[in-house]
Amino acid sequence: xxxxxxxxxxxxxxxxxxxxxxxxxxxxxxxxxxxxxxxxxxxxxxxxxxxxxxxxxxxxxxxxxxxxxxxxxxxxxxxxxxxxxxxxxxxxxxxxxxxxxxxxxxxxxxxxxxxxxxxxxxxxxxxxxxxxxxxxxxxxxxxxxxxxxxxxxxxxxxxxxxxxxxxxxxxxxxxxxxxxxxxxxxxxxxxxxxxxxxxxxxxxxxxxxxxxxxxxxxxxxx
Length: 222
Ligand code: ADP
Description:
InterPro entries: Adenyl_kin_sub, Adenylat/UMP-CMP_kin, Adenylate_kinase_lid-dom, P-loop_NTPase. Helices cover 47% and strands 14% of the residues.
C-alpha cells in the first residue's frame, strides 16, 4: 500500500492518513508534520521553512524533495507508506516519480479529497493539534477531546496551528487551486487518481477511502 493523499487544507487528509497508516501497518509521512517538527526543533531547515509555513505559501520544492527522498529511501517504508501533503506542485510530482523509480517502487493510488471551501473554513476554525509527537488532530465541535486542551491519546497539549488563522487559510486555498490542482490532473492522466467525497463524519470518509482503494467490504472497522 503506497498511496498519496491530495486535497485542500482542512479536507481531513491528516486524520485519514493516520487511520490508513495504522490499518495497513505502514508509516504516515506528512510533509507538514515533518516541517513543523523541524521548526519546533529550530534546525536550519526549520528556520528556512518557518516563514513559508506561517504565510501559507509552499516551502521551496528543493527542500521538500530532499526531505521526501531521504524518507522514501529508508527501510521503514519498504512495505509502503501513506504520503500526506506531497506532492503539492508539478515539480514535486515529477521528483516523486524519480524517487519512486530510484527505489524500484510505484504508487498504488492517489486519493483526492474533495470538499467545498465553506466546509474547509469551518473545519480549520475549530482544528486543534497535539503538540507532542503523536500529532493527533481534534475539532472543538465535531471531534472534541475528552478533556479540553489535552490529547486523548498521550495527554499532550493541544494548540491551534499559526497557519490556521482565516487569512492564512485563504492564502493556502489559493495556493492549492493554483499549484496543487494541476498535480491531481497529472495523476488523473496516469490513471491513478480516485476522488473521495470528504464531506461528512470521519468514519464516513474512512469508509469511502477504503471503497476507493477497492476495500469496501473491509469498511466496517474505521
Ligand atoms: P494542510 O494540508 O492543512 O495545508 P499541511 O500540514 O500538509 O497542512 O501543510 C502546512 C504547510 O506546510 C503548507 O501550507 C506549506 O507551507 C508547508 N508544506 C507542507 N507540505 C509541503 C509541500 N509538499 N511542499 C511545499 N510546502 C509544503
